[in-house]
Amino acid sequence: MAHKRIRKFNTKDTYPEQKLDNDLCQSVVARGTMVFVRGQIGQDLETSESVGIGDAGAQAHKAMQNIRMLLEESGAKMEHICRLVVYLTDIRYREAVYRAMGEYTKGVYPVSTGSSCPPLPAPNGWSRSKQPP
């Protein structure tokens, strides 16, 4: 049985300055019952525009809205989430991010792991979590 791939894209269109050519997708339905969702950030999936630059809570809300939308497009619901992994570029964002996540997972009880890591630069050299000058 072939997997169902949701929102296919190629990195040459998404990241043209990086000279990549990888076929990816936003989520995969495997075996008809398991859904794997690509890591989400505060970015509009329709326009690729960043949302909530400088506001970790707003970014988390957008990421959770993206997750909900991708699950629904895959035939699943938020109640089906089993595991969430969160990467924070600054531990001080934890409260705002987890508060936003909690609004979308109330009553779901997923396992969750959070980790702090240094910011990854966006293609333009700026961290997606910081406002450029």
Characterise this structure.
The chain is α+β, with helices and mostly antiparallel strands and 133 residues long. It is built from three helices and five strands, in the order βαββαβαβ. Strands 1-2-3 form a three-stranded antiparallel sheet. Helix 2 packs parallel to helix 3 (94-105). Residues 124-133 have low confidence and may be disordered.
H and E string: EHEEHEHE
What form results from the Cα inertia axes? Answer: globular
Low-confidence stretches: 124-133
Q: Ends: how far apart?
A: 50 Å
**Overall strand count:** 5
- The spatial strand order of the largest sheet comes to 1-2-3
Q: Whole-number average pLDDT?
A: 89
**How large, in whole angstroms, is the Cα Rg?**
15 Å
Strand content: 15-25%
Give me the secondary-structure category: alpha+beta
Percent helix range: 25-40%
* Major sheet: 3 strands, antiparallel
* Total of helices: 3
